[in-house]
Amino acid sequence: MPTAAMPTSTMLHGLPETRIAAADWQAVEDGLGRDGHAVLPALLTQAQCEELAGGYGDEARFRSRIVMERYAFGRGEYKYFSYPLPGIVEGLRQSLYPRLAPIANRWHAAMRIEARFPATHDEFQEICHAAGQRRPTPLLLRYQADDYCCLHQDLYGDHVFPFQAIVLLNQPGRDFEGGELLLAESNPRQPGRADVVPLRQGDAVVLAVNHRPVRSARGYYRANLRHGVSRLRKGERHTLGIIFHDAR
């Protein structure tokens, strides 16, 4: 939602709830179950992408800045938004969560994980905040030539929503080269595998945060997933990360 601290601009209009509602959510669930990820094409417009990427230098929007190399996370940097979130970021959180929560509950039931997720993000946020997870986790990431991100999981606390979304804000081939999104799966019963997820500007990928259920003859077991970014060969690449659980 617009706030007094934010300028009126294209960023505050045309929120993508209609595109989220129109997505084939059965296909999304099928992709998540099969591959641990699913793409939502053209979730944001070019103008929305450019507005978000262009706001990276506005320190008033963020609570902290992380230089990856200092923590052996890779090279590049990212910034966590502060509350209140920009309208389009809050809109994505609020609109994606209720589509994903039923899938999350089915996954937890299959993997025999006790936690269940309420119908709305506001309710889930109350659970996080009651447990001391009060710091916002949506973030903007910036990569320049030779930057990369090591394979990792975004957990942040005891209450972890099993999905997150990543939106590419620049156009491959025009704004940057390299910098592919990488997903790696470690399966205790099969050889591991890795995927490169091709994205265009405005595409979002929904991915499993830590594991996915895999069917076996005796039910389901858990395959572990991590994600990262390959080395950027040239240009500049920004992404928006939508994480639904807050951090301690």
TrEMBL record:
It holds the Pfam family Oxygenase-NA. InterPro entries: DUF2086. It comes from the Bacteria. This is 2OG-Fe(II) oxygenase. It comes from Achromobacter pestifer. The lineage of its organism: Bacteria, Pseudomonadati, Pseudomonadota, Betaproteobacteria, Burkholderiales.
